Amino acid sequence: VPETPLLEVRDMVVNYGRIEALHGISLSVSPGELVTLLGANGAGKTTTMRALSGLLPLTSGTILFEGTDITMMKAHDRVVAGLIQAPEGRGVFPGMTVLENLDMGCYGRPFEEKAEYQQTLDWIFELFPRLAERRKQVGGTLSGGEQQMLAIGRALMARPKLLLLDEPSMGLAPMVIQQIFRIISEINSRGTTVLLVEQNAQQALTRSDRAYIMETGEITKTGAGSALLTDPAVMSAYLGVD
Ligand code: ATP
């Protein structure tokens, strides 16, 4: 019997007014997977993430989460269900400390027991030692990479079943990008299913089980990350190889 996908999107169409941005995309993510959605600027990656989070309505199509139709479910109920999108690094609360920012992550999914809260916090500080060192520092004074780490940490405080990450490497220095991708792999290997949107093809494909290539609102190719890494068309379009 095939396993029920954690996330299944069927023929999703999304419009901005009269403009159709997504023309009927289908994708799935199985429990435990790290899946990347790869595409150039304007391909529709952010639109996809916003639709999955419940921030944009579908014109047509279906979103299933753990086999349940959540197409019409409100954004905060999706958070309660465990579908959590990390905000962009710039989305951290600049006047709040690192610890206060992390605590905000529990807002939609409060802990029932103090021990579980502490355990999750300890894990996040283990993943991001920099955040532990800076736990009393306000968010606005962190570096770009540290703010991105904080944004991911905040999402982890909600104990996602599916973590949505929209271009976590954007605007970061190469060394920091390496670090962020390593941590994403670590989060995944510790049991959190991840759907990652990226333009950084090399890093993302290397670390993904599978990937979908998106172009102008459509999925044009899918396969194992390792297979797409050596696909000549993908290489020339996304890896800067002519
Ligand atoms: P980027 O990496 O630049 O964010 P993307 O792959 O995330 O690109 P989207 O931002 O999802 O792409 O945009 C997909 C399409 O929808 C683009 O043609 C874009 O111009 C259009 N679009 C995005 N936001 C809006 C909006 N608020 N109103 C109208 N059109 C929009």
Automatic annotation (TrEMBL):
<protein>
    <recommendedName>
        <fullName>ABC transporter domain-containing protein</fullName>
    </recommendedName>
</protein>
<comment type="similarity">
    <text>Belongs to the ABC transporter superfamily.</text>
</comment>
<feature type="domain" description="ABC transporter">
    <location>
        <begin position="7"/>
        <end position="241"/>
    </location>
</feature>
